[in-house]
Amino acid sequence: MHYGKRIELKSSPKTTQSRLAFALERGHIESLKDKQLLLLNPPTNINLSLFSKSHTKVQQSFFPAYTKLVERGLSVSPVFSEKGLSEVCIVYCTRSKMGTLNLIYQAIKLLKPSGLLIIDGMKTTGIESVLKELLIPFNEVRNISKYHGKLIWFHKPTMEPNIEKWALIPNNLEGGYITFPGIFSSKRVDQGSLLLAQSIPLLSGKIADFGSGWGFLSNQVLKSPAVSSIDLIEADYSSVMASKKNIQDDRANFIWADVNNFTGGPYDTIISNPPFHISRNANPELGISFIKAAKLLLKPSGSLWIVANKGLPYESTMKESFKEAEEIISRGGFKVLLGVKPSRICK
């Protein structure tokens, strides 16, 4: 299989670590300054000197990144539906190939006729595989390899090819659950969440689910009639939308937010299956930050139920954060930890 028109690069001093800046400097892509621009899933440290802020809109569905981009003065939304208005769309690859292809599908719909589509990604995000997929339905696909990744670009064809398989088609899971490609545990119930659901007793009062995903744990908790309310707090917008489809209960509140900056509560109980990586490497600090956030939002007698991979070192933080902390069960590579009576209570 060929790989489209590849522009060979001569070695030169690195003036920037941005593949897009490099392509603009070399004249491979014309200036974007006066273009109506839409950025899909851009990083928070994006080089804004390449664009005109007044002509640029951003789609970012991950709440912490959304917040940082807003702070940089950009117009940001978790979704866009204004089809056929953008002159240029730039897609920044996700960790999921299907997630990236869906963004490309959206971009094609959002572009004006003959509009320019640019895709930027590191090798670790699967950009090579994305390029192979693009070469099947599209012609005149160009790319450069630089800084351990690729920049791909082409113009929207007059006759759009059939790429409906890249649309956000829901997955139908056992139990009647609906998920979307690219979100956590989209094809089956996560085994950690399943173990936690089997371990917690019937709860009561005001509950929060930190990192609630598509709603499996919260749905299990709502089986208790003694639960007065549950706040599902999730940073991924697509997961929030999925949880709204999966839970039809007036006691559930769906909140797109960053757990670490959330100011709700106080809660009787918090449950959580926290993320343990953003990139491909495990990062226990993510779960630790959830534990520290939970202790601030619990009532004096409140409790935290958390599930984690066996190898993640959460025990010391649990003991520091709660007057009582113990491991409830360890099975199948996961452990359930319980903390009762936070050492620093919500006021």
Q: What's a concise summary of this model?
A:
This protein is of the alpha/beta class and 347 residues long.
- N→C terminal distance: 63 Å
Using DSSP, what is the number of strands? 17
CATH class membership of the largest domain: Alpha Beta
DSSP strand content: 25-35%
CATH superfamily of the largest domain: Vaccinia Virus protein VP39
Just name the CATH architecture of the largest domain: 3-Layer(aba) Sandwich
Please outline the major beta sheet: 8 strands, mixed
How are strands sequenced across the largest beta sheet? 1-7-8-6-5-2-3-4
Tell me the domain tally. Answer: 2
Average pLDDT works out at 91
Question: What best-fitting shape do the alpha-carbon axes yield?
Answer: elongated
How do the helices and strands follow one another from N- to C-terminus? EHEEHEEHEHEEEEHEHEHEEHEHEE
pLDDT < 50 runs, ≥5 residues: 1-16
Oligomerization category of the chains in this entry:
single chain
Rg result: 22 Å
Query: Considering DSSP H and I runs of 4 or more, what fraction of the residues is helical?
Result: 10-25%
Structural class: alpha/beta
Q: What's the total helix number?
A: 9
Q: The CATH topology of the largest domain, please?
A: Rossmann fold
